[in-house]
């Protein structure tokens, strides 16, 4: 039991459950961090989970569709809600627990059995409405080309909770958003989630990857082409991405890679909210929300003159930094399980399980490719697995270097890596000294380090 939970209120929550136990499918209690502190035996049995393994874990690891974290964060009760378990639906009640000062210290939830005859008509009606809503949402998603919502952004780490919080805030305004983060952290997914949660959700979501478009064609892609504007241009109007995204969202991925001339034209469009197709004298008014993304250091590019300062300020109204996977490793198990469920469904096979030892292997890896790399590795393991359980052996050929480290044979590889780094440093020092004709101050400037640092490295390699 968490120290945050007042004993009296805990007893009260349990007494509520005992009153309705004959009518309830089960109950659970979470603390202020949405970690499970107690679950009824009937609930554990129904979910098929180990009670001892569930205690202390984030509620989403046991119930991915749970809304208990929302109750804890907002302090708002869900008196009646519908929750799906496989093909079954249950009515659930979620209540925040507060201390004497009114602060939320946890939440209590219990689910009613849908076999109760007096509630069955309501459950059936909600089930039908939910099915219709899902069909409508699927049709809408196809229409607007935005597949993801904030429910798809998985993670219980503080960094990901902050990303979702900032994203939902950004969805309520029209200001430009700048997504920052390494490759593979899910920037486009967050962009789509912001669009899906915004008042523009029924309008187009258009994405452009700047690195995929030749500079000579970028202006035409952005602004469109009038009929016969140049030799080879067709007789029909070619609509640009800004017009296609009118009243919707335009996602500019890898924004740091556009050239200075295109930066200037993009800035003008953002300021004036109008475009002029190539070869046309007609100005077209637009209403487009911009979400940009990059893995590069934009402030440094601004200081070096590679990126326009005024465009940077125009884009950087609401910055959101996506954390790398190596700094939120508590999310790896949840991401892995989610990927396994998706891949198992795609392969039309029973959902695979993953052992704690395999999770430990994945957690120790640094994931330079972030969530995208993790998804790829899990998918490879699922496809190659011949059993119903993913274990360490399923990752041996996929993460051989990491497995070697996890088996405590990292000494040789660490020594080898250190030798390579020392050799590289020695060559760089020698080349800098030669280029500076033996002048150590000049060598330090060539290497971009201080003279004190240079002297230490020279002594280390016997070059002093």
Describe, in plain words, how this protein is organized in 3D.
There is one protein chain. The protein is of the alpha/beta class and 464 residues long. The protein has helices at residues 7-20, 41-47, 51-54, 59-62, 68-74, 120-144, 158-171, 187-197, 215-223, 241-244, 260-272, 298-304, 309-315, 332-346, 356-364, 370-384, 400-406, 410-435, 440-447, 451-460, and strands at residues 24-31, 36-39, 78-85, 88-98, 104-112, 177-180, 205-209, 249-253, 274-275, 284-285, 289-294, 318-321, 353-354, 389-390. It has four domains: 7-125, Beta-Lactamase, CATH 3.30.450.20; 151-321, Rossmann fold; 327-406, Helicase, Ruva Protein, domain 3 (Orthogonal Bundle), CATH 1.10.8; 411-460, Arc Repressor Mutant, subunit A (Orthogonal Bundle), CATH 1.10.10. It has 20 helices and 14 strands. It has a five-stranded antiparallel β-sheet with strand order 2-1-5-4-3. Strands 7-8-11-6-12 form a five-stranded parallel β-sheet. Strands 9-10 form a two-stranded antiparallel ribbon. A hairpin with a 5-residue loop joins β4 and β5 (104-112). The longest helix has 26 residues, at 410-435. The protein starts with 6 loop residues before the first helix and ends with a helix.
Describe the structure concisely.
The protein is an alpha/beta fold and 464 residues long. The protein has 20 helices and 14 strands. It folds into four domains: 7-125, PAS domain (Beta-Lactamase, 2-Layer Sandwich), CATH 3.30.450.20; 151-321, Rossmann fold; 327-406, Helicase, Ruva Protein, domain 3 (Orthogonal Bundle), CATH 1.10.8.60; 411-460, Arc Repressor Mutant, subunit A (Orthogonal Bundle).
């Amino acid at each position: 039991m968490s120290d945050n939970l007042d004993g009296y209120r805990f007893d009260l929550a349990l007494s509520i459950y005992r009153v309705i136990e004959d009518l309830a499918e089960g109950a659970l209690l979470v603390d202020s961090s949405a970690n499970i502190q107690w679950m009824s035996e009937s609930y554990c049995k129904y979910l098929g989970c180990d009670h001892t393994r569930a205690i202390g874990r984030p509620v989403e690891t046991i119930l991915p569709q749970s809304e208990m974290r929302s109750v804890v964060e907002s302090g708002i009760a869900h008196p009646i809600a519908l929750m799906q378990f496989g093909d079954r639906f249950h009515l659930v009640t979620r209540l925040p627990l507060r201390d004497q000062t009114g602060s939320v210290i946890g939440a209590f939830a219990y689910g009613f059995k849908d076999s109760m005859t007096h509630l069955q008509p309501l459950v059936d009606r909600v089930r039908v409405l939910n099915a219709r809503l899902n069909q409508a949402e699927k049709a809408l998603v196809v229409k607007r080309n935005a597949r993801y919502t904030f429910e798809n952004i998985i993670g219980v780490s503080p960094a990901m909770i902050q990303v979702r919080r900032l994203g939902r805030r950004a969805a309520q305004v029209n200001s430009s958003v700048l997504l920052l983060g390494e490759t593979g952290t899910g920037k486009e997914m967050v962009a789509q989630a912001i669009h899906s949660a915004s008042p523009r959700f029924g309008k187009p979501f258009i994405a452009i990857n700047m690195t995929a478009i030749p500079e000579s064609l970028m202006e035409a892609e952005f602004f469109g082409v009038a009929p016969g504007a140049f030799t080879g241009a067709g007789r029909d109007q070619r609509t640009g991405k800004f017009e296609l995204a009118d009243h919707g969202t335009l996602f500019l991925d890898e924004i740091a890679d556009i050239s200075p001339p295109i930066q200037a034209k993009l800035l003008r469009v953002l300021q004036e909210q109008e475009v002029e197709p190539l070869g046309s004298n007609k100005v077209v008014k637009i209403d487009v929300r911009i979400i940009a993304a990059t893995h590069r250091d934009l402030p440094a590019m601004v200081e070096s003159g590679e990126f326009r300062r005024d465009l940077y300020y125009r884009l950087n109204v609401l910055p959101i930094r996506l954390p790398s996977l190596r700094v939120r490793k508590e999310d790896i198990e949840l991401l892995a399980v989610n990927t396994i469920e998706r891949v198992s469904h795609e392969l039309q096979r029973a959902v695979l399980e993953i052992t704690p030892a395999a999770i430990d292997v994945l957690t120790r890896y640094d994931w330079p490719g972030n969530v995208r790399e993790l998804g790829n590795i899990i998918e490879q393991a699922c496809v190659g697995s011949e059993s119903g359980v993913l274990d360490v052996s399923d990752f041996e050929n996929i993460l051989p270097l990491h497995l070697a480290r996890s088996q405590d044979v990292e000494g040789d590889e660490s020594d080898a890596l250190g030798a390579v780094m020392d050799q590289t440093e020695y060559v760089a020092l020698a080349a800098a000294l030669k280029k500076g004709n033996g002048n150590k101050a000049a060598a330090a400037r060539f290497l971009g380090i201080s003279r004190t640092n240079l002297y230490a490295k020279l002594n280390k390699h016997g070059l002093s």
